[in-house]
């Protein structure tokens, strides 16, 4: 056990045979020996005179954290010239002011010209100060640092190479962080050379080539190159068509146009790519990323080591299929083609998918059986609720097919439906029409039946779709996606629905704000919360919790109470629309009805937790609830006592999740008060909470249940996957015609809507 920043933790067992670079980002967490190269733009301030101290401190903190995890960290740093320039300028200003005062006899300073400072002199003046700064920063984390200055000659002389190698290994053995820099005080100007003609040939002419050479010499697992751009782009950054390249493969250089180098430093992006490819050829993985962005620089190094999608990752292994970015673009193009189809054609695709679910039943169940067996064999035994969600059956597939046919039948006029018509002026008519949202990302756990449901809804609404399922349902998802694409092929839109099979982390998918328009999580409350936290600029539709209440009023029917409570809690306790808190009017305590409720819950083996008020009425009460805001997701529930329907509403607003809440009463006035005042997505009277479902609502299926207060709320079907656009049809109309001196007047007349398809 080591300590870092007074926090003890266990060091990680890190080891791998060097010689081959990592194939995927997810493997970077196994990197033991890491070189971090800090470009001049990262280390220096914007005025190029002095160091960016805050940024440097953050980098030192991250390196220290990784060092204390048991990794071997090395830093290749720039900054000596900038630091020296700051010191020399100060000295020159000071000496000039003294001379001027002596010669003129005046203390007032006049404008003084500062001569151009030679870089080698700046480096000589700055190296000691830069190292002193690093030492002071690393000391805060109980880590020792050591400085090593090198030149190109140190790598060409075999004895010097061995000495350098031995020194670095000894420092790493003693848990010291080596800080390496080119000795800019004596280094000659760079000369043209035959770089990259072999794995042993690269000239050290800047810190990029130094870092690459050092990484290969030291058999480093990972080289992180930090600059002032996000990574490698296919066009110069800032140009309209520039796209960040997530993974760069050897041989892709022809697809890249290099721009100018950064504001400071010796090498531009082309030099970085050459150095990175050379290091990759030598067995070291490389990531080029932005070390200056204020929002990410505080965790950019640790994010890279954790395998997060940051910067450009250099890999020798090219995946067989498209990248997730390419899949998103394919889904958008396919979705637009899908939206342009006739409603009848989209319905035909869904009908075809429904038929395939029943026709290919045996193959689907066989694939599902493989998933269930692997869940057993790999020792990751799933909890019973998750296992139930993972399992498919003939009856489930039949229900799915029925639901899909409902969607097809109800989707005839979903896209392009006119919902408002206004005559703005003579021959100037405005329409508001429904259109698809764009590209949906649906992330779901365990439940493979979600795939055809969501696909059908996306097809009906003309949306492109990216699907990310759990690995526990890989075989089931694969065959269901294949059948979905087979159905889409009926009208040539196979690419509209994509299944993400790459090793993309959910957090990385949530950052694709330029490619994805809406994220819909289907799974545990923890999954939803994680996605809501990770989503960067993309709306998330869903609910993080399903804390559903049933309130039993004094006027409740004895026959209805136990029946509704049993169904709400016991029919499927893992569902998000299952009862979690039972509110009982105080006057019902110690009545036969109350005893019937308790007896029924005991028979169904429901564990009862007592709310604070309920516990106060009992001599021997069940375990008191830890929190009234708990989603159990199992055969457990909380019972609490309230004095009135008003208090029940107040309790629901304070502790509920705005999902589904129920009142059981025969008093219509009380029921209407509850229905009108409870601010939840679904509010029921004398009905089970389990009715909160897209299929049961007649939507055919749902992509989820939303507790959001904008756009869609409650079970979300086709309508929730649509937005609108405005169409204005005119005839040479201009706004100036409607001014006081103009010839036209606004009418703003509401026009009748076209007849909807009666079917």
Automatic annotation (TrEMBL):
PANTHER family: DELTA-1-PYRROLINE-5-CARBOXYLATE SYNTHASE, GLUTAMATE SEMIALDEHYDE DEHYDROGENASE
Example GO BP: L-proline biosynthetic process
Protein name, entry field: Delta-1-pyrroline-5-carboxylate synthase
Oligomer and partners: Can form homodimers/multimers.
Domain Aldehyde dehydrogenase: 323-589
TM annotation in the entry: none
One annotated GO molecular function: glutamate 5-kinase activity
Domain Aspartate/glutamate/uridylate kinase residue range list: 32-290
Keywords recorded for this protein, A-Z: Amino-acid biosynthesis, ATP-binding, Kinase, Mitochondrion, Multifunctional enzyme, NADP, Nucleotide-binding, Oxidoreductase, Proline biosynthesis, Transferase
The keyword NADP belongs to this UniProt entry's keyword annotation: yes
One GO CC annotation: mitochondrial matrix
Catalytic activity annotation: L-glutamate + ATP = L-glutamyl 5-phosphate + ADP; L-glutamate 5-semialdehyde + phosphate + NADP(+) = L-glutamyl 5-phosphate + NADPH + H(+)
EC number(s) recorded for this UniProt protein: 1.2.1.41, 2.7.2.11
Source organism: Vireo altiloquus (Black-whiskered vireo)
Predominant place of localization: mitochondrion
Biological role stated in the UniProt entry: Bifunctional enzyme that converts glutamate to glutamate 5-semialdehyde, an intermediate in the biosynthesis of proline, ornithine and arginine.
Family matches, as PROSITE patterns: GLUTAMATE_5_KINASE (PS00902), PROA (PS01223)
NCBIfam families: P5CS (TIGR01092), PRK00197.1 (NF001221), proA (TIGR00407), proB (TIGR01027)
Top-level lineage group: Eukaryota
Similarity section: In the N-terminal section; belongs to the glutamate 5-kinase family. In the C-terminal section; belongs to the gamma-glutamyl phosphate reductase family.
The keyword Transport belongs to this UniProt entry's keyword annotation: no
UniProt-listed SUPFAM superfamilies: ALDH-like, Carbamate kinase-like
Pfam family, one: Aldedh
Location in the cell: Mitochondrion matrix
Pathway: Amino-acid biosynthesis; L-proline biosynthesis; L-glutamate 5-semialdehyde from L-glutamate: step 1/2; Amino-acid biosynthesis; L-proline biosynthesis; L-glutamate 5-semialdehyde from L-glutamate: step 2/2
